[in-house]
Amino acid sequence: MALSQSTQFGMATAFFGLLSFLFGILGELKKPPHGTPIRGRDVVVCKFPSDPTVALGALSAVAAACCAGVGAVAIFFPYKGKPVPRKVLFDYTLLYVFFHLAIGITVAGISTTAWVTASEATRHVRNVHGDFGYECPTATTGVLGGAAFLNLDASLFWLLCLMLAGNVREDYFDGGAVGDEVAGLEEK
Q1: Cα–chain-centroid distance for residue 37?
Q2: Which residue in 23, 42, 149, 179 has the fewest CB atoms around it within 10 Å?
Q3: Can you count the helices (H) and strands (E) in the chain?
Q4: In 3-state terms, what secondary structure has residue 44?
């Protein structure tokens, strides 16, 4: 038995959301607490152990963006080959609110993930410091893990939006309350 389009989109959204979460959590767990300061004559050179934090953070941000992209496309994708007008979708207040919440949480999650990943990468690249007391810290502990939870939350909001859009589609095509309004407009 083949899965419906809605189910396929929902599974893809959940997959990318969970993948983003796992990459972020693994990146947080693999991040060393600090580098090793090597003191020279007038500088401190930080030597960081090799770790996959930057790569995992970047993969987490990409997976979160894919999750949001699939979720947004799924809301507007034609149901059984027939599109639902955007106005009809967003006239449903719950969908309108959750859609905008999903966008906001996605932006917050991806931004935080990208910021902490770039911060960690910058510390690895710019590892020579003039301050002799520099202790070679890594990016703030817990931020990448928090961003992973934001990305997971965003994927759950996208899934809620998909369920709400499914309700609007059923009403629109099966003659529910929304469908009755549209049918009345089409007859005039």
Answers
A1: 35
A2: 42
A3: 6, 3
A4: strand
Query: Residue 79 in 3-state DSSP?
Result: strand
Contact by Cβ (8 Å): 133, 10 = no
State the Cα–Cα distance between residues 177 and 17, nearest whole angstrom: 33
- How far apart are alpha carbons 77 and 84 in whole angstroms? 8
pLDDT of the residue at 178? 47
Query: Residue 1: its pLDDT value, please?
Result: 53
Q: For the chain, give the number of residues.
A: 188
Neighbours of 187 (CB within 10 A): 6
Name the residue among 92, 93, 100 with its Cα closest to residue 68. 100
SS3 state at 75: helix
CA distances from 128 to 37, 117, 134, 141 (A): 10, 19, 10, 22
DSSP label at residue 37? E
**129, containing H or E segment:** strand 128-129
What are the CA-CA distances from residue 160 to residues 30, 103, 116 (Å)? 32, 12, 28
CA pseudo-torsion sign 8, 160, 98, 142:
negative
Separation CA 173–CA 95 (nearest Å): 17
Can you give the pLDDT at residue 137?
Answer: 86
Which residue ranges in the chain fall short of pLDDT 50? Answer: 178-188
Q: What is the pLDDT of residue 2?
A: 66
